[in-house]
Amino acid sequence: MASEVAAMAVRFVGEYVRAWDLAVAAAVLFVFSAVRNRLSGPPGAPMLWPVFGILPSLFANFDEIHDWGTAALARAGGTFPYRGMWGGGSSGVITSVPANVEHVLKNNFENYPKGPYYRERFVELLGDGIFNADGDAWRAQRRAATTEMHSARFLEFSAGTIGDLVRRKLVPLLDALSARGDAVDLQDVLLRFTFDNICAAAFGIDAGCLADGLPDVPFARAFERATELSLERFVTPPFVWKAKRALGVGSERALVEATRAVREFAERTVAERRKIGTLDGRRDLLSRLLSSPPADFPEGYSDEFLRDFCISFILAGRDTSSVALAWFFWLLASHPDVESRVLADVAASGNASSMDYLHAALTESMRLYPPVPADFKEALEDDVLPDGTAVRAQQRVIYYTYAMGRDKTLWGPDCLEFRPERWLNKSGAFAGGAESPYKYVVFNAGPRLCVGKRFAYTQMKAVAAAVLARFRVEVLPGQEAAIKPKLNTTLYMKRGLMVRFARREQGHEPGHAVPTAGGGRLTWECSSTAAVEDSKNKLVQVTRSVEGLMKT
Ligand code: HEM
């Protein structure tokens, strides 16, 4: 009997159901499910498609992804749910609401660790390093990092590494480029600078990226490759990259090779440093950790701890400030009035703790182009955000720093304008400390606030001051349309920034007026001998200020 019914059903399907009918039914189901998804999210939120989730919208807006995300958040009132492809295990909410960010990063901190989703994608490269750790492992490193990095000894040492690198490597390189009239990718030069700088500060070594001829440095290349390949896991369905990892093929094999090179380098450095009898004269992070273990590590830190610690530091400090500087120079090129005020500030100031206008200009630049455009945390348990959005356990809350920096409701109708003055008080002092860190979340906030924030500002101010005092940065024409962010966890410029450097002494001055701190005006225009002399004197003054900055 049952077999007769089955045979009849097969005959019926064969006679009356065509492939076309099946396609129409599937399409109706698809549209029905899509409309249901659309209606269940906040109005204006991106469509969550059956099977593909948010991916079709992402692909459709790939080229302008951050501006599209910013507009979508504005339409949706600041928060919307997202879902990746079926089987990808990625879902949660995206938000630009400061109260939600404060809840995740501070008020309910224990419920929002980095979590296993992040950890398993970075574990080969970072191991248990601070960037990848939660709970006690994170706390131990955080304590070690803040104790050392906020010590007067490290502040002095790291400022020394910055000044040294600027004087001995960066300025001579730019001098040579300007003498030859060569164009160069400024972003690449800055990335090399910060890589060398973080290696000097963390390991006490010269990575050599800024050496003559800008050589290919195997350790830097392996590091970059390992980071890129780890990030690839975030956009690849887990069953794909996990299968490749199990088989040891393709990108997963390349990742193993790149991370091995990075780890071996770090292990060798740790081993060599251990061999040195006394580390009293060395002030890099690694030497400090080796020579002064805290009470809770009476035996001293293990080799693995030190290796992972240093690798995390390089990851954290290697490209964020260089990317911030690249966007800063790009913004200055189209805002000569701001450049003039920065120059006046540099000329009038003597050390890193001053230069308030430059500090404000960098802060403002990172509001528009945050080096880490978005970040996320993973919920341990079900929760409700302050704006009423529900978050289920294991879902992620993505806080979209890029969108927050361009939110009219947070920064006013001129939120898209580059206006450093918004960070200054009436007497021209930097007043950014009064802003909520959950509104300007560029350096993260709460217990996991960036440990390198102070270092980063000193570094960026030193580079900006030294470069601007000596050179006019000419952005090569015709790049405007190509200056876009790359889709990455760091906001690299997609194709870099091609520039030429013109020595200010060579009379390449822009000729625009430079207001001084006291309200007077000096110009760089060289129209008479007296004016040339005056300009030279001002340049000497600027150069001295930079030297002063280096000494702090
Ligand atoms: C403009 C430059 C920088 C920006 C915008 C920046 C931004 C950030 C952000 C957003 C985080 C949070 C990451 C997360 O938890 O997912 C972070 C963490 C961190 N940053 Fe920075 N950073 C900068 C420079 C640096 C530098 C130069 C260093 C090292 C010298 C550094 C060291 C760290 C460390 C160690 C952490 C981990 C803190 C923790 O998890 O407790 N950063 N930074």
UniProtKB/TrEMBL annotation:
<protein>
    <recommendedName>
        <fullName>Cytochrome P450 86B1</fullName>
    </recommendedName>
</protein>
<dbReference type="InterPro" id="IPR002401">
    <property type="entry name" value="Cyt_P450_E_grp-I"/>
</dbReference>
<dbReference type="InterPro" id="IPR036396">
    <property type="entry name" value="Cyt_P450_sf"/>
</dbReference>
<keyword id="KW-0560">Oxidoreductase</keyword>
<dbReference type="GO" id="GO:0046872">
    <property type="term" value="F:metal ion binding"/>
</dbReference>
<dbReference type="GO" id="GO:0006629">
    <property type="term" value="P:lipid metabolic process"/>
</dbReference>
<comment type="similarity">
    <text>Belongs to the cytochrome P450 family.</text>
</comment>
<dbReference type="InterPro" id="IPR017972">
    <property type="entry name" value="Cyt_P450_CS"/>
</dbReference>
<dbReference type="InterPro" id="IPR001128">
    <property type="entry name" value="Cyt_P450"/>
</dbReference>
<dbReference type="Pfam" id="PF00067">
    <property type="entry name" value="p450"/>
</dbReference>
<keyword id="KW-0349">Heme</keyword>
<feature type="binding site" description="axial binding residue">
    <location>
        <position position="450"/>
    </location>
    <ligand>
        <name>heme</name>
    </ligand>
</feature>
<keyword id="KW-0479">Metal-binding</keyword>
<dbReference type="GO" id="GO:0004497">
    <property type="term" value="F:monooxygenase activity"/>
</dbReference>
<keyword id="KW-0408">Iron</keyword>
<keyword id="KW-0503">Monooxygenase</keyword>
